[in-house]
Structure to design on (126 residues):
């Protein structure tokens, strides 16, 4: 819950360039292959983030704070991941969910699954 609060405050109050570097690196190759136990751990941590997000009484934790919190947890656990920030194609914009963020582990979305299509604007590897 604390990480979700920190992420929400960072998104709302701190310039993007200051907290973006805490989420992973832009350059380089995608994360290496994680062992099956690491993928299970990523799914467990994602479930904890989702559960905590439903219990926050004072604000709705949207996809970006959820993805940020999970990225920080995965970093601490040493689990490789990819965090993606994306936008809908121009022809499909105009809805509430035009922007989206999610985290993948082993090419499987572990938090932030939402039907596309999406155009990735930033991909961070952790």
């Amino acid at each position: 819950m604390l990480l979700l609060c920190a992420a929400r405050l960072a998104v709302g109050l701190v310039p993007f360039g200051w907290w973006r570097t805490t989420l992973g690196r832009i350059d380089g190759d995608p994360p290496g292959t994680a062992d099956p136990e690491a993928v299970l751990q990523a799914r467990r941590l994602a479930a904890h983030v989702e559960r905590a997000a439903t219990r926050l009484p004072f604000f709705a934790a949207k996809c970006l704070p959820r993805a940020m919190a999970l990225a920080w947890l995965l970093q601490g656990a040493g689990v490789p991941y990819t965090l993606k920030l994306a936008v809908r194609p121009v022809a499909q914009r105009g809805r509430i969910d035009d922007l989206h963020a999610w985290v993948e582990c082993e090419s499987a979305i572990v938090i932030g699954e939402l039907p596309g299509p999406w155009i990735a604007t930033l991909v961070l590897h952790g």
